[in-house]
Every structure is written in structure tokens, then in C-alpha cells.
Amino acid sequence: MKDFGAVELEILWQRLISILDEVDQIIVRTTFSTILSESRDFACILTDRHGASLCQSVWSSPSFCVVLPRTARVLLRRFPAHELQPGDVLATNDPWQGTGHLPDYVLLMPIFRAGQVVAYMGTVSHMSDVGGHPNEIEGSDVFAEGLRMAPFKLFEAGRENDLAFSLIGANCRAPDLLLGDLRAMAGAALIAARRIEEFLYDYGMTHLDDLAQTILTRSEQLMRNRIAALPDGCYRHELEIDGYLERVWLRTQVTVRGDEIEVNFAGTSDQTEAAAINASYNTTYATVVFPFKCALVPDTPNNEGLFRPIAVNPPVGSILNAQFPVPVKARAKTTNNLNQCIFGALHAVFGDRVQASNGGIWPFVLSGAEEPYGNYLVDMLPHGGRGGQPTMDGMLPVAWPNNSTITPCEVLETKAPLHFRAKQLWTDSAGAGQHRGGMGQVIVFEHVGQEPMMFNLTPDRVATVPPGLAEGGPGAMGKVRINGEPVERFPPILLQPGDVVELCIGGGGGFGPAHLRPHDLIARDVDQGYLSPEQARAQYGFVASAA
Hints:
Blueprint: H1 6-30, H2 34-37, E1 42-48, E2 53-56, H3 62-78, E3 89-92, E4 104-113, E5 116-126, E6 152-156, E7 159-160, H4 162-170, H5 175-202, H6 209-228, E8 233-244, E9 246-257, E10 260-264, H7 281-296, E11 310-313, H8 332-335, H9 338-346, E12 364-370, E13 374-380, H10 409-415, E14 418-426, E15 440-447, E16 453-457, E17 479-482, E18 485-486, E19 493-495, E20 500-505, H11 519-527, H12 533-540
Parallel strand pairs: 10-11
Antiparallel strand pairs: 1-2, 1-5, 3-4, 3-6, 4-5, 6-7, 8-9, 9-10, 12-13, 12-16, 14-15, 15-20, 16-19, 17-18, 17-20
């Protein structure tokens, strides 16, 4: 095997990442739905010829990148490398073989050199609609949630699979968006294949095996070294989360033993048929691994070598290892809290790379038909405040543990009959602490059209508070109002013209005891409107001096 020096390895690795960043930008420019072109709910991943991930684009959604290698191996068992040809694109959206729910399509394109497969370009993308009932949370099984495609060829030798495109398009509400996005993702993968071929030519390589082995081996050893530096032991944490209508528990035991870690979730609530909040193993595994990557090797580009020392064992039949065919469409409502389980268990040994709970992600979809918009379907992925950390306050609303961006209000107003009255920080929503949580936000919009509009919302932390860490206080619990009336159940809601929706998305929990927060920082928060004088007194015992 070729021995790569540190400088050479960095140059080669960074060029591969830059290729994927180019693919990322192509996807943003060529996809049709707002959840891809604006919210960036997708990932671009390069694997070796065995399906092990080597690198990703910088903006890729982290959990997608961890799942992709697992799905790649499923696809390659169905379509072995020796049966593939240039221009083939393999695909599936099966929740148990892919990323956990039907809207996520995984695509895999082989990359050839001298007639041999040398790598694969993978993409994962959240599609706006894949058919099924319109409900996001309520549901009894996966069959009702949309069209489930077992591994198949989306393209064969560069030609569209007419039957697959016809079947997919006939089973969704927005075929132009879905089929256009699938074509865009495949087109972006084709550009990636060309760029990797150029990469190999430029460096006189006939394959990527040596480079891939170096990346994976060194990354695995680095993660093992970081784990070995942690004190051995069993660390536990439990967390009550919303569930849906009935709250559920996540119970975690993290065992550090030498240079390996096992995460066990014995005692976690059972899977349910009452709501689509169940998670398949793949999405649980990916969401659990990510906090370790952030805390232990934050500066190393993501690749599969980093995951190898970490075993994740949720009980079969639990909400974190749900079995077919339970509903899974809103699985992120459960898994987005898993980082807090890991940080809650390990904050005493992870040092300053932990954070308290956040206000959650509140995906919503608006759809209808009206001139001049035609048949419209738009998405937004707003977040609450981030949790406080040992050395700093929590961030203002920003994606975590996802890597999505917020669709601008102005974009949605051009694509659907909407008027946003407000999008602002939520005073008094941050959890108190030595380092307070990040502020939540308030979003208010009005239906300004003439025809009814379908509104689907998946809120979080509306039944339980975002907890703090190390004696930090909780963030504010979320609230939903329509025309001033509180909403507590979230089936598809038919908005009438003139209806006004108000979303109050919670703040992050605080870190450390509130009495240790310096008075000048409390005064600054009051002055900037983050904290009211009343809550400054209640949370910190702070009384502002008269001006």
C-alpha cells in the first residue's frame, strides 16, 4: 500500500471534499423543492469501492452521511459491482434500509476507471412529497405513509428507468417537484463521477484503494486514541421527551472501555402504533454517533473510520429500534433528542464540547392550489435556540443536530399565498444558567390567498421543557396558536383565507448554576431584550438599576 505523507494526504483529501462541495452547489442550483434548494436537507458522500464513506460536502446533513455507507452496502448486495455499468444509479427510500423515513431517497452512482468500479458517489435527499396520507405525526403504519421503493435502478446506463419514474410520479402529490429533484440529484452525481475521474488522472492513480485505506485507518485510530483518553466507566442519563399525546423516555447507558464505546438504550420506551415518532436502527445509529464525532474529533473530515469504535445497541422493538411496519414519518421528533442523552451522560468527561438541550426543529409544509402559484408545496425547517455550553451561551436559532438552513420568508411568499407578519427572537425563552441557553423564536404568518391551504407541522418540546445541564435551567416550552387559539394536536390542518398561525419555538437549556452568571451579562441580556426585568429577577435575583 502506498504511504502518504501528512501534507500529501491533506491535499488529496481536501480536493475530494472540494469536489463534493461543487456537487453540493449544483444540487442547490438545480433542484426544484424549497426543502432542497433553500433548506439544504440533503447530503453528498463519496465512498470507496466497498461502500465505506471517505468524505462529504461541508454542508451535508451529518446523520445522512453516517447512514449512507450502510445503505450503500444494501444496494450493492442487490446490484454487485461486476453487474454495474457507467451511468447506472441505484436507489431506495426504504426506512429500514435507508435513513429512517420514506421522504429520504438514497442514490448511489458507480465511478469507473479503466472499466473497473473505483468508488461510488452517494446522495441522500429529503423529497417534498412521496405520497401516502398527508399527516406527519399521526399514523398507524408505514404503508400509509407513501410509496416505499425497495432497491432498484433509477437510471440504467444513463437512461431513465421509465417504469420507476412513472410509478413514483403517479404516487405523489407534486410529481414535477419529486421527479425533477431525482433527476437533479442524479445529474449532480454524474458531475461528481467526472470530477473523480479527473482527480485520478491528475495524480496518476488507477484506483482509490490506497488513499481510502489511509483515510479510514488513520481516522479510526484517531477516534480510538480520543476514546482511550476518557476514563473507563458506565455513564447514564435519562430524558423525558414529547412523544405525541403521551410522553416517552429515552434511557441511555454509555460504557467506555479502553478505546471503544458501547451505547445501550435499555429501558427506552417501546415503539408505538399511535404516532409516527418511531426510529429505525439506521437513524438511531447515525444520530448517536454524531455527538461523539463533534466532541472528540471535531476537526477531522467525516468518514466511516470514525464510527468503527462505537457500538449502538437500542432494544429491538423500542422507539429507537422500531420494527417494520410501524409508522416512522416523524422519527426526527425522537432522534433529535439523542444528542442530549449522550451529552447528559458524558458532560463530566467530555470537557467543554457539550451542550444542554435545544428547542427542537419544527418542520412544516404548506400546500394547496391557487392562481398565480398553481399547485404549490413549500417547506420550512425552523429551529429553536441551542443549549448552553460550559464556556459560552447557547446559540440563537440554528440547526442542530441537523445541518439544514432556514428558507427565507421572502422565498416562501413568492411561491405560496403567505404573508409573514413576524420572525423574531422570543424574549424570556432561554434557559437560565452560568451560560444561558440560546433564544427561541416566534414566527407568525397569515394565509393571504382565496382558497384553503393544507398545513402540516411537526413541533417539538411542546409537552416537555428543553432541560439544562449541570444545574442549568430549562428553556421555554414551545407553543402553537391559530387565530389566537392554542393547538395541541397536529393532524393536517386546513387553513382558511385570513387564518393566522403563530409558532413559538422554545429556547435552549442553560449550562451551570444560574447564580454564577456575571451581573454584567444579565444586564446586557435585559438591555438587548433577550430577558425581561421580571424574569431577570425571578431567574437570577437580578434587579436592574434605574436609568
